[in-house]
Amino acid sequence: MGVDVHVLNFLAATQPIHRRALGRTLMLGRQGFHIPAQSRALAQSILQKYDPEVSLDEIQPAEAPWTEGLFRYLGSTSLNALDASAFEGADIIHDLNLPVPQHLHGAFDTIFDGGTIEHIFDIPAVFRNVRAMLAPGGLFLSVNAANNQLGHGLYQFSPELMWRAFGPENGFSLEAMYLAPMGAEPSVIEAPDPQAAGRRLEIGSNPIPTYLLVAARRTRAAAEATSVYQSDYAKAWGKATPAAGIKSLNLTDLANQFRSDKGTQLGAPPHKYTYLYDIAFAPYRRKAINLLEMGLAIGGPEVGGPVDRSVDSPSVRMWTEYFSQATIYGFDISDFSHIKHPRFVFTRGDSGSEPDVKRLAQVASHFDIIIDDASHASFHQQLAFLHLWPKLAPDGLYIIEDLQWQSPAFEGTLPSVPKTSDLFNTFFVENRYIPSSLLSDEFLARVKLETFSFSSFPAFDGKGGPTTKQIVMRKHAE
Q: I need a surface site. Which of 110, 204, 272, 393 has the fewest CB within 10 A?
């Protein structure tokens, strides 16, 4: 990872884009300065094409192994390096396979990737993290292998991937893309958009290793990431009729496959929530949303089971399979950190502990879907709602399950509050308030103003009845 003469040429050539005003700069991996003594005269001439007064020896002395001096010359007002390990002196330690923490969102004006992401497995997760960490108007500068470096990293990249991933549909303006053959003299070749050209633009049989150089600017703070498809296929699919007999598994199929009680096979009787969820969640299925589920498996202390248990979470398996780009956040009093998935983030805590619930509210900037399937105790449900409803995104869904049942292990020992189903149905349907020590009349009145729809459902057993089993609330869109 770092800057050689070809990368230096890219940074110099893109000065009209970054204007030597990189601002708050994040390096993905601490960037080394890889220009040996015999190439320093060449590096000096590259810089002087764009700044005749510059001295390489002054901004980047020969004995300096890292690129901080170069980046300060390019206008970095602050410099951080993020890496999965501190072995090269990075000051932010984070695995980019996983979502970055909230305090890094919008924190940088420039992110420089000098050949790091080709070594990271979950490239879509990396792109989501770059989007999250860039401030609106921020610049992503990327240098990675494009050709003839097989085995150097996990991947080599095509221009098509970058044109699609950093296009307007994902909240970016792609301001420059070049191919840079690693010959004796640094040079760049424009890499046009295959979609605009109407055909694939393939690299020929040139045996020289080649870089792919990208400069993309973040244009919208709230843009949702969309799936990336190769443009010629996307064009063909738009004209084609779906093949007969091809079926994508719906949520009920997945629930039954992973043995979740939200489906139609497990439970006495099964909950069958997925009949509703398959309709309600369909618009989110291929979007980069945040979904939070509280309560990850049956058999915990709410039914007299142990806190310390080692079990799988069928619903986490179901959500990660159904939502192709979502980050799934899980919360439980038991430890589920053994579930390893690049889009799953686990927080351990107690639904009855206000500090734990407040901590949960800070693990993401927002949630698009919140599902409370935890202890089912009314006090716990209302404490969670108090702190998590404000974190629900516009047009988001807040769902409370299994309202017909309260845990005998909790309900009689917790502070007294009305049953959640009674409190919510009375307030949102009958416009009457039942006093609750957690959810005040004023708070619920504000929630009502923010609520687009409120729905309560009985059991999905075809019998109906007055008992509310599930509440679904949708927030107003902005």
A: 204
By the 8 A CB rule, do 134 and 111 touch?
yes
Sign of the C-alpha dihedral, residues 392, 396, 401, 403?
positive
Mind listing the pLDDT tens digit for each residue in 435-477?
999 999 999 999 999 999 999 888 776 666 668 889 999 999 8
Structural domains of the chain ordered from first start: 2-232 (3.40.50.150), 251-475 (3.40.50.150)
In the predicted structure, residue 204 carries a pLDDT above the cut 70: no
Give the tens place of pLDDT for each residue, 83-142: 999 999 999 999 999 999 989 999 999 999 999 999 999 999 999 999 999 998 999 999
**Nearest alpha-carbon partner for 138 in 205, 51, 249, 221:** 221
**For residues 73 and 58, what is the distance between their CA atoms, to the nearest angstrom?**
10
